[in-house]
Design goal:
InterPro entries: Biofilm_reg_signaling, EAL_dom, EAL_sf, GGDEF_dom, Nucleotide_cyclase, Rev_trsase/Diguanyl_cyclase. It contains 23 helices and 16 strands. It has 678 residues and is α/β, with parallel strands linked by helices. The strands form 3 sheets. The protein has an 8-stranded mixed β-barrel with strand order 8-9-11-12-13-14-15-16, surrounded by 5 helices. Strands 2-3-1-6-7 form a 5-stranded mixed beta sheet, with helices on both faces. It has a two-stranded antiparallel ribbon with strand order 4-5. Helix 1 (11-20) packs antiparallel against helix 2 (24-57), helix 2 runs parallel beside helix 4 and helix 9 (292-299) packs antiparallel against helix 10.
Length: 678
């Protein structure tokens, strides 16, 4: 298609466009356009000149003059019309060439008699113009038209006017052929030179475009490399931050931001190697927070985490800058004393940490006291490697826990044996629970005045295949710690009630049975339902069941305990406060407790003598219990002096070896048969 770019249609503008153009097709378009722009006004001018000259000066026929002028005008409009239509380059070239040929033929036919051989000048001008074009199409059109016009002039033109002999036609056509051949040769020569120039131009243009593309690609590559370099820098920065983060995660605790177990162990490995070479020593301190589980269970894990963060921050403020403090996990911390100091200095240093750490944390719900147990091991006597040192420190820390918490213990070799014994005891106790190695003995209780049997206290016993008879005080705390006490306690309660129901049906003496209840059992939310189920299963009169509790039960949460005791009391079950006077007795809560019986601890009974002030204390306890409308039971009666004093002070019931040791069911039956005791 022809170029439809809008431009000003003037000869200078088109020439400028032609000179600036490299595309052959576009050059041909501009050449045809110039031909049309020259031909149209010349033909319009010819139409006007024909009227003026032929009609006015030569007196020609008006109709013929107007007809010829119309043809001139029509040919001029044809050029103008062709130049303004959007046509293909080839069609545009053929139409322009055809229109020029028609114009030449019209001039020869209509005006040869007037202007004579001058028409051939027009033909030669057209041929010369055709030679200046890129394509030879117009040259062929003009050549053929000129040859046909020559035949017409020679053989068909009327005799009047200019005469044209055949010899002249032959010479003229020979000359025309020579000019045509010369024009064609010149055209092809110029076209060949032009083609070579175009090839060179195209090659240069192609190289230029290739260089431009390469330059553009280079710019894009540069931009891409710049972006990739920025991304690489950002990626490297991200890798660096990730490495720092990974290093932190690998060597630091996420909650407290203290060094973790891995860093502690690596530092210990380093210190062991250095200390072996330099024959030096260092200390590892194992720190375990006291009562953390209670805080975590009571307040929730979020508060527990805050508690750990607070403790870690407090310890960081207190430790020496040359020492390494870390968190091993849970509520366990480790402190490596890397300085070369003596054991007494290390103890004083840790003691200062213990004292400074003790603090109270107040919340909207409660108040907790921060304290910790400290275990210390020393390199090299307490361990040759980090694991052994940590185990030794851990062992000494557990010893500090056993001794009441919130204290400091250095490692001793016998502690390992204690730990191993405890582990063995735990294993055997678990087997005893699974294999039902426990049994119950019953210690009788008597009225102080007439020695009638009041009832029996059910006491659990354990005959271990390994240890033999194990005292309750040696395995009950361990059962509580292991979580076995709830199952054991349920078995004791159920067994005692079953047996007592059988004896009550046989002897019908309206006695009671006392069963000790652990503080762990009382904290079990299902304990009241357990009591109900036992009473229902055994069909026992609840008034004959007495549950013995200790004062330690009220340390943690007195309100919940009182609520549970009231639920039990609502079942008509009796409640006895055991070991009264040895715990944390307070009149403020004694008045609120729904207790039926107070048991005076054996330690007070053992000290009864005329010289001991405890005599007055026991009397006061009895008086206090009666004022609280409680039944008083004294345990541990072993001689008449103790018995006489208790009778004199109106003690209600007595229990002890003087009247009866813990006995089997068979011995109970024998005792009931001779009740009252003579």
């Amino acid at each position: 298609m022809m170029n439809n770019i809008k431009f000003k249609r003037t000869i200078p503008v088109v020439f400028d466009l032609l000179n600036a153009e490299d595309d052959p097709a576009q050059i041909l378009y501009y050449q045809n356009l110039i031909t049309c722009m020259w031909a149209s006004p010349l033909l319009f001018l010819g139409a006007l000149a024909n009227i003026i000259v032929v009609y006015f000066f030569w007196g020609g026929n008006l109709v013929e003059v107007l007809l010829n002028s119309g043809i001139f005008l029509l040919l001029g409009l044809s050029f103008e019309f062709i130049s303004r239509k959007e046509l293909t380059i080839n069609l545009f070239d053929h139409l322009v060439s055809l229109t020029q040929s028609i114009t030449l033929a019209f001039i020869v036919v209509q005006y040869y008699q007037i202007i004579g051989p001058a028409v051939w000048s027009v033909s030669f001008v057209m041929i010369i113009l055709s030679l200046m074009r890129l394509k030879i199409t117009m040259l062929y059109y003009i050549a053929i038209t000129t040859f046909v016009c020559g035949l017409y002039v020679t053989f068909l033109l009327p005799v009047d006017g200019f005469l044209f002999s055949p010899v002249y036609f032959l010479i003229q056509n020979l000359l025309f052929c020579f000019i045509f051949c010369l024009a064609s040769a010149t055209f092809y020569l110029n076209l060949n030179r032009y083609d070579k120039a175009v090839v060179r131009l195209n090659a240069v243009t192609s190289q230029k475009e290739k260089i431009a593309r390469l330059y553009k690609k280079l710019i894009l590559t540069k931009k891409t490399l710049t972006v990739q370099n920025q991304e690489l820098q950002a990626f490297n920065e991200e890798i660096r931050k990730n490495e720092e983060r990974l290093h932190f995660l690998a060597y630091y605790d996420g909650l407290t931001e203290l060094p973790n177990r891995k860093m502690i162990l690596e530092r210990l490995h380093l210190l062991v190697n250095l200390s072996e070479n330099e024959k030096a020593s260092f200390f590892i301190v194992f720190i375990d927070l006291d009562n953390f589980k209670k805080i975590n269970d009571t307040m929730g894990h979020l508060y527990g985490d805050d508690y750990l963060r607070y403790t870690a921050k407090r310890l960081k403020e207190l430790v020496h800058e040359d020492d390494l403090l870390g968190r091993l996990g849970g509520d366990e911390f480790a402190l490596i004393i890397q300085r070369n100091i003596k054991e007494d200095a290390a103890y004083n240093y840790v003691e200062s940490l213990r004292n400074e750490l003790c603090d109270k944390i107040k919340t909207s719900c409660s108040e907790f006291k921060v304290s910790a147990s400290f275990g210390i091991s020393v390199f090299p006597q307490d361990g040759k490697d980090p694991i052994e040192l940590l185990n030794s420190a851990d062992t000494s820390m557990y010893k500090a826990k056993e001794l009441g918490r919130n204290n400091i213990q250095f490692f001793r070799p016998d502690m390992k044996e204690e730990i191993l014994n405890k582990i063995q005891m735990e294993s055997l106790l678990l087997k005893a629970y699974e294999n039902k190695e426990f049994f119950i003995e019953y210690q009788p209780q008597f009225n102080a005045e007439d020695h009638h049997i009041r009832g029996f206290e059910a006491l659990i016993r354990w005959d271990s295949p390994h240890y033999g008879r194990v005292a309750p005080m040696n395995f009950i705390p361990l059962a509580e710690e292991m979580g076995l006490i709830i199952g054991i306690g349920h078995w004791v309660l159920l067994t005692a009630c079953h047996k007592f129901k059988e004896l009550d049906m046989r002897f019908d003496q309206n006695l009671c049975v006392s069963v000790n209840v652990s503080a762990v059992q009382m904290r079990d939310k299902n304990f009241v339902d357990t009591v109900k189920n036992v009473l229902s299963e055994t069909s026992m009169d609840p008034r004959q069941l007495e549950l013995e509790i200790t004062e330690s039960l009220f340390i943690d949460n007195i309100e919940e305990t009182i609520d549970m005791l009231n639920e039990i009391k609502a079942l008509n079950v009796r409640i006895s406060l055991d070991d009264f006077g040895t715990g944390f007795s307070s009149l403020s809560y004694l008045r609120r407790l729904p207790i039926d019986t107070l048991k005076i601890d054996k330690s007070f009974i053992d000290d009864l003598s005329d010289q001991d002030s405890s005599i007055r204390i026991v009397g006061d306890i009895i008086s206090l219990g009666h004022n609280l409308d409680a039944h008083i039971v004294a345990e541990g009666i072993e001689n008449s002096t103790q018995l006489d004093y208790l009778k004199a002070n109106n003690c209600d019931c007595i229990q002890g070896f003087m009247f009866g040791k813990p006995m089997s069911v068979k011995d109970m039956e024998a005792l009931l048969q001779k009740n009252p005791l003579k």
